[in-house]
Write a structure and sequence with these properties.
Length: about 725
C-alpha cells in the first residue's frame, strides 16, 4: 500500500509539473480527482505488483509534463479507468468535475466485449474512440498517454499479450500519433513495440548504436563546431543538437534498402532550432550550411512552404560532412520544433486552449476523420480494423493545379483521384489529363511535385474501370454513388418497358414467374433482367414471344439412334431420357455444367453416349446446327443426396479478410462444399472463379444472393465456362 507521505509527494510532483507547463489550473479539482482515483483503485494491483493507482497517476503525469494541454485533461487522465474497472458512478464525475471531464473519460473507456468476439469488440472500441475524438481532441491525447505508459510497463505481462499489444501499437497508435503531429510519442511507441515484436533485432541494433556512441559524439562535435561558429558570426540565435535516429526507423531503412546496419549511412541527424518568429531565417541558415558543406540537392525537402497534413514544418537537407559521410540537417523555428514534437498539444499551448474554433486543430481532426471515413462505414469487425490500419499507414504526395494550388493525395494516386479532390463534378466529367504539360493515361501514378491539369467534357460519365486504380476514399465513394444512381435509373427504365409489354400482351406474371423467366436468360435477379432489357442486351419481343425454331428444339424429337443403346454400362438415376429411366450411358457436358432446375437437352455423341447440356448452352446451339437429329429430350429425375459441380465468377475490391468472408458465406449455407478457388488481383480489384457442389439451381441462386450482400463485392454471376 502507498504510504500517505509518498502520496503527498506524488501529488506535489503532479501539481508542480502542471503549474510549470499549463496556465490557469484548478489545483483543488486536480487534488480531488487524485484522491477520488486513489480511493477507487486502492484495492487493485497491476501485473507488476504495484498499486493500480500508479497507472492513472503516470498517465496524468505524461499529460502534465510531456503533453501539457489543460487541467481538465489531467483530471480525466486520473479518472480514465474508474468507469471501466470500478463501481464509480458517472453522475459523480459530472457533478464533481464537469460534463467535459465525463465526456473525455467516456470516450477513453472501452466498450465491454463480453458478448462479442475480440475483433468486433476491438473494432467497436476504435470506432468509439475516433467518434469521441472528433467531438473533443483531448480524448485521443489521454488515450495516447494511456498507451504510452502501458508500453513503458509492458515487461510485466505475459509474452503473448505483449506481442498483441505491441502489434496494435505499431499498426494503430503510432501512425495515429503521427497524424496528430506527435513526433516524440510516435517514435517512443514504435521503439517500445519493436522491442517486443523483434527483440533479437532490437537488442542487436541497440548494441551496435551504443558501441558507436563515443565515435558518433566525436563526429557530431566535429560537424557542429564550424556551424556554430558561422551562425554566431551571423548573429543567429539558435540551438544545434545531434541525435541518433530511432531504432525502429533504422530497422525499417535496413529492410526497405535491403542493407546491413553498417551500410546505413544517415544514422544520425543534426537539428538547428532557431529562436525567431521569422521563417525566412530558416532559408538564411540553409545558405550558411551550404557555405560549409556540399549539399545533395536531390535530398532537399521543404516542409515549410508545403507543410505535412499533420502541420509538421521544417527544412530537410542532406550534406556531405567530414570524412565523406552523409548527414541529414533539419532547420526549423522553435515554434515549428515544438509542434513537430508535440503536435496538437503544442498548438493548443500557442492558442491558449482556444481549440474549438481554431481551424488548424479542426483540420487535424478532419484529416484523420477523412482518412478513416471508409473504415467507419464498415459493419464488419475485422474489415474495420484492416481498413483502419491500411488508411493510417498510407504515405502522402503533394501535387499542384495549373493555378498553383496544392493538393495532398495518398501515394499511387492518379489524375482521377486528383480530379475528385478538386471537385466531384470535375471527377465525373474527367476525360483526360495532362501531367507536367503532357497528356497521360488516367491510371498514371502521380509523384510529388507534379502539376496536374484535368480535361473535362460535360457529356462524359465516370467509367466503372476507374474503381480498379483510384486510391482515395473520396473518389471511390463518388464513383460508386454515381454508378449506383445510373443503375437505378436503367433498372427503373427496364421495369417500365417490361410492364408496358405485359400490359400490351395482356399477360399477368408474378414476381416468381418473372424471376424464373429472368434466369432462363442468365439473369441472377430481376434487377439484372430489367437492366439487360433497358440496355438492349435482351429483346423484349424474343423474351415474351419465343421463335418457332426455339420451340422446335424443345418439342421436335428425332428418331432414337440405335448405336447409343449399346452404351448401357452405367445407371441413369437422375435423368429421364426420352421419357424413360433406362440404362443408356450419359454424362453432363462440362461446357455448361447443368444442374437440377436448368432446362436441359441431350445430344447423342459418338463413343460417349448422351451429353446433357443446358438448353441455352452456346456449344449445344453450335452442335445442333449440323446435328438436329441427334438431339434427345431429357428431364431431371433427382432424389435427395445428389450433388452437382457448378461455378460462379465473382468481382470485387481487394480487401484483407474478404476471401475468408466469401468462403464462410458459401460453406455456411447448407454445408456447401467448395471444390476450388481461383483468384487474381490487379490494382486493388480481384476477379475469381469458385467451384462448389450444389443440389440444384435454387441452391446456387441462394449462394449468389448471399455473396452479393458482402461489402466490397461488385458482381456475382454463374460461371458458364468449362469446369474441370
Amino acid at each position: 500500500m502507498v504510504g500517505t507521505g509518498k502520496l503527498q509527494r506524488m501529488l506535489d510532483d503532479l501539481l508542480r509539473n502542471a503549474r510549470e507547463n499549463i496556465q490557469n489550473i484548478d489545483e483543488e479539482k486536480i487534488k480531488k480527482a487524485f484522491e477520488a482515483s486513489y480511493e477507487a483503485h486502492k484495492n487493485h494491483f497491476r501485473a507488476s505488483g504495484d498499486p493500480y493507482f500508479y497507472h492513472p497517476y503516470e498517465v496524468a503525469m505524461i499529460l502534465a509534463r510531456e503533453l501539457p494541454i489543460d487541467d481538465i485533461s489531467i483530471i480525466a487522465a486520473l479518472l480514465h479507468d474508474v468507469l471501466e474497472d470500478t463501481s464509480f458512478p458517472p453522475e459523480i464525475i459530472e457533478k464533481e468535475f464537469g460534463k467535459e471531464t465525463l465526456e473525455i473519460v467516456n470516450g477513453v473507456t472501452k466498450i465491454s466485449g463480453i458478448t462479442k468476439t475480440h475483433e468486433y469488440a476491438q473494432a467497436d472500441n476504435y470506432r468509439k474512440l475516433v467518434l469521441s475524438m472528433i467531438k473533443d481532441i483531448r480524448v485521443i491525447l489521454v488515450k495516447f498517454a494511456d498507451r504510452l505508459h502501458n508500453m513503458r510497463t509492458l515487461e510485466y505481462i505475459k509474452p503473448e499479450k505483449q506481442i498483441r499489444i505491441a502489434k496494435e501499437t505499431v499498426e494503430i497508435f503510432a501512425p495515429l500519433a503521427h497524424r496528430f503531429g506527435l513526433g516524440q510519442i510516435k517514435w517512443e511507441l514504435e521503439d517500445l513495440a519493436f522491442k517486443y515484436l523483434n527483440r533479437e533485432a532490437y537488442n542487436e541494433l541497440a548494441q551496435k548504436i551504443n558501441a558507436k556512441r563515443k565515435e558518433r559524439e566525436n563526429y557530431l562535435k566535429k560537424f557542429i563546431e564550424p556551424l556554430e561558429q558561422k551562425l554566431k558570426e551571423h548573429k543567429i540565435k539558435c540551438e544545434i543538437e545531434g541525435r541518433a535516429k530511432h531504432l525502429y526507423s533504422i530497422y525499417k531503412k535496413m529492410i526497405q534498402r535491403n542493407k546491413p546496419f553498417e551500410e546505413i549511412y544517415d544514422l544520425f541527424a543534426v537539428r538547428i532550432i532557431i529562436d525567431s518568429e521569422d521563417k525566412n531565417e530558416c532559408y538564411y541558415v540553409l545558405g550558411i550550411v551550404y557555405s560549409i558543406y556540399t549539399p545533395l540537392l536531390d535530398r532537399l525537402k521543404d516542409y515549410i512552404v508545403i507543410p505535412k497534413t499533420n502541420n509538421y514544418q521544417s527544412l530537410h537537407t542532406t550534406v556531405i560532412g567530414p570524412e565523406g559521410k552523409f548527414v541529414e540537417v533539419q532547420i526549423r523555428l522553435r515554434k515549428m520544433h515544438e509542434i513537430a514534437e508535440k503536435g496538437v498539444a503544442a498548438h493548443w499551448k500557442y492558442k491558449e486552449g482556444k481549440f474549438k474554433s481554431d481551424p488548424t486543430i479542426e483540420n487535424w481532426i478532419n484529416n484523420v476523420r477523412e482518412i478513416l471515413e471508409g473504415a467507419l462505414k464498415s459493419d464488419q469487425g475485422k474489415e474495420f480494423i484492416q481498413s483502419f490500419k491500411k488508411d493510417l499507414a498510407i504515405d502522402e504526395i503533394y501535387v499542384f493545379s495549373p493555378k498553383g494550388d496544392i493538393f495532398r493525395l495518398p501515394v499511387n494516386s492518379t489524375p482521377v483521384d486528383f480530379a475528385f479532390e478538386v471537385h466531384s463534378n470535375v471527377g465525373y466529367q474527367c476525360i483526360g489529363a495532362k501531367v507536367n504539360g503532357k497528356i497521360v493515361p488516367l491510371d498514371t501514378k502521380l509523384n510529388s511535385g507534379d502539376q496536374v491539369e484535368i480535361i473535362t467534357s460535360k457529356n462524359h460519365k465516370p467509367n466503372p474501370n476507374w474503381l480498379m486504380f483510384v486510391q482515395t476514399n473520396k473518389a471511390k465513394t463518388a464513383i460508386r454513388r454515381y454508378l449506383n444512381k445510373q443503375d437505378e435509373r436503367v433498372i427503373e427504365e427496364g421495369k417500365e418497358l417490361v410492364e408496358k409489354k405485359l400490359k400490351k400482351l395482356k399477360l399477368n406474371f408474378s414476381q416468381e414467374e418473372l424471376l424464373k423467366l429472368a434466369r432462363n436468360y442468365k439473369c441472377d435477379n430481376l434487377n439484372q433482367f430489367y437492366k439487360n432489357i433497358a440496355q438492349g442486351e435482351l429483346d423484349l419481343e424474343k423474351v415474351f414471344q419465343p421463335r418457332k425454331e426455339e420451340e422446335n428444339v424443345e418439342t421436335e424429337i428425332p428418331l432414337k439412334v440405335e448405336s447409343v443403346v449399346q452404351y448401357s454400362r452405367s445407371s441413369t438415376e437422375g435423368i429421364l431420357i426420352d421419357g424413360d429411366l433406362n440404362k443408356t450411358l450419359y454424362s453432363f457436358a462440362k461446357c455448361c455444367n447443368p444442374i437440377p432446375g436448368d432446362q436441359i437437352v441431350g445430344f447423342v455423341t459418338i463413343g460417349e453416349g448422351i451429353k446433357i447440356h443446358r438448353k441455352n448452352c452456346l456449344e449445344l446451339i453450335r452442335l445442333a446446327k449440323n446435328g438436329k437429329d441427334r438431339l434427345m429430350p431429357v428431364a431431371w429425375n433427382i432424389t435427395n443426396g445428389h450433388y452437382f459441380i457448378s461455378g460462379i465468377t465473382i468481382v470485387g475490391e481487394d480487401m484483407p479478410g474478404l476471401l475468408k468472408e466469401i468462403s464462410s458465406a458459401i460453406s455456411s449455407y447448407e454445408s456447401t462444399n467448395i471444390k476450388s478457388v481461383n483468384i487474381a488481383t490487379n490494382a486493388g480489384m480481384f476477379k475469381g472463379i469458385i467451384t462448389m457442389e450444389v443440389k440444384d439451381l435454387e441452391h446456387l441462386q441462394k449462394i449468389i444472393e448471399r455473396l452479393k450482400k458482402i461489402k466490397g463485392i461488385y458482381t456475382v454471376e454463374r460461371f458458364d465456362g468449362a469446369i474441370q
